[in-house]
Amino acid sequence: MSEAATATHYVRPDSILRYTFQERVMHWATALAYSYCLATGLAFYTPYLFWIAVVLGGGPTSRFWHPIVGLGLWRLLCGCISSGAVTCSGPKRTSDS
């Protein structure tokens, strides 16, 4: 059987599957968590940017969610590394590259 026939979803025969669905979900979840932690971290760093915390739900809400989302970000990063999607030297390499 060909690789396209054994895939869990349809892949055109002339296309190259670079990332799996799980890798794409992990990427976007990591990006959103990083963006949230960056925005709230900047809001807590200086009073000039505290308006960001207000936009993200207010100061107390941002202070509550910031460490939780940070732990989730750490878990996602560890998951990316343990799944082999990312190595310490960069993205995974295929035999084609």
Summarize the structure.
This protein has 97 residues and is mainly α. It is built from four helices and two strands.
Tag the structure with descriptive keywords.
97 residues
Q: Which descriptor suits the 3D outline?
A: elongated
- The topology string of helices and strands comes to HHHHEE
Per DSSP E runs of 2 or more residues, the count of β-strands stands at: 2
- The side-by-side strand order for the widest beta sheet comes to 1-2
Distance between the termini: 24 Å
Give a description of the structure:
With 97 residues, the protein is mainly alpha-helical. It has a domain of 67 residues. The chain contains 4 helices and 2 strands, in the order ααααββ. Strands 1-2 form a two-stranded antiparallel sheet. A hairpin with a 2-residue loop joins strand 1 and strand 2. Helix 2 packs antiparallel against helix 4. It is elongated, with a radius of gyration of 19 Å. The two termini are 24 Å apart. The model has no long low-confidence stretch (mean pLDDT 81).
